[in-house]
Every structure is written in C-alpha cells, then in structure tokens.
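Lecture 7, part B: from sequences to assemblies.

Below are the input chains for today's worked example.
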Amino acid sequence: MDMPTRLEAHDCRGVSEILMRIGDKWTVLVVMMLREKPRRFNELKRHVGGISQQMLTRTLKTLERDGLVDRSVRETTPPQVEYALTPLGHSLSAPVMHLGDWAIANLGEIHLNRHRYDAATHG
Amino acid sequence: MDMPTRLEAHDCRGVSEILMRIGDKWTVLVVMMLREKPRRFNELKRHVGGISQQMLTRTLKTLERDGLVDRSVRETTPPQVEYALTPLGHSLSAPVMHLGDWAIANLGEIHLNRHRYDAATHG
DNA sequence: CAGAATCCACCAGGATACTG
DNA sequence: CAGTATCCTGGTGGATTCTG
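Predicted structure of the full complex, as structure tokens:
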C-alpha cells in the first residue's frame, strides 16, 4: 500500500524476538510506568496493580540486563533503589506507544470478533 | 517530552493485552508472511521455517478468531485453503513494522548489553 | 493438502515465607 | 524497603500419529 517492504523474511525474526521479549505479562506495563519518571521498587509494585514482587523483580532484572532500565542504589537505611529508563528504554517506548494507539482503537473490534467467532462455533 | 501522555494507566492494560496476544512465537511471522499476499497452509509452513503444523494451525485459528485473518476454502480435491489478512490485520501490520524498525536498529545493542551484563555477573 | 488428536517438556507466573 | 528462595500450576510449543 505504501513503501516497498522494508522488512525481509530474515528481519522478521528480529521483530519476533523483540515481540517475544516485551510480549510477556508485565514488561510493557513497567516500561510505561517508568516512562513518566524514575520510580522505586514498591512504588512500581503499587502502580502496576496485580504484579507479584517475584515477577516485578524478574521483570526489572531482565530489563536491566538488556540495558533498557537503569538501577541505582542508595545505601541508606532503609535502602532506596530507583529504577529509570535508559535512553534505549525510552526509544523503545515510542513504537510501543504506536502499538498502544492501535490497541486502543481496535481492541473493541477484536473482542467483538471473538464473541462472534465463539458464538458461531456450533459445538 | 512531546505531547501530553495519550496512554493512561488504564489504557496500558490494552497495550499489554495486544502485546501478549501477538507476542507469542509465531503470530507476527505469520502476519508478516500474509502481508505480501494471501497464502495457503503448506505454503505458509514452508516460508515460516521451523513452525510445526500444530502451531501453524493454532496460530491461524486464533488469528481468524480475532478477525485478523480470513480463511477461505475451495472444496476441490485436494482441498485448497487460502489465508489472507483482513483490513484489520493489515492495519495491525503497520505499528508492528514500526516496532520492527526499532528491533532492527537496536537488537544488536541489546544483545551486547546482555553479554556485558552476564560477563559482569561474577558468580 | 489441510488439518485433528494425543503426548510431553519447559517455563512464565502466582503464592508464600524468609532476609539484610 | 527491596529483595531472595521455594513450591506449584497452567499454558505454550514441539513431535508424532491419524484422517477426509
């Protein structure tokens, strides 16, 4: 419809890899939370409702490993740990927002399609 | 940094839902394949290397359920089944391409970060 | 050709208890 | 406060066999 295909079959693997990387249950939610400003552990836990501290720890650790989130510790008592998006992390949030716009626009239709499909499933 | 945040916390759930929906191992690859033109079952199986027919069946079925892919059967012998993106499916491919561009640009750095992190993990 | 059915391994993710 | 450690379950995805 527009430009010649920029993504070749080979590149699709990279797309898929990124999608699988951020396509888990919590990663995007955490990134979105950190998009506004850096936050501390329990602050994140409160704002991302429903996440267990186990999964928050895992999510933040893999984000840090990939260089998407920076972890800074203040050795006070009690300790303060602050998480912030790196420039790389911020750059990721842009295309994710695009997908977010699409999601907001089309999620309703998708759910509708599902209901129709399930209703038509005679058995 | 730019416009006021368009995505509120509530909306992030939708984003996350879509990400989880298409963030599995094969969905995006199949959508990318169908982006060029409609294809038949084994044609897809060949082009999307490494997918089992089990997973291709599942992937196509959920795509059809969500109204992202259209399935048309020609009752010949042997039967011919063609899969094509719906307009909704095509509209999804756009933001996915944006994420694809990001992936191509930054996947190298991510892998590098991982190696660095793992190397620094003294134990 | 285009699946359906079955079996199985792995891992994401939840719950809970404990620690510096 | 910011984690770690352990246990457990459901779902994803692979391999194989069978069918119209």
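Note for the exam: Residues 24-26, 52, 54-55, 58, 78-79 of chain A lie near DNA strand C (CB under 10 Å from a C1'). Keep this in mind when comparing with the next example.
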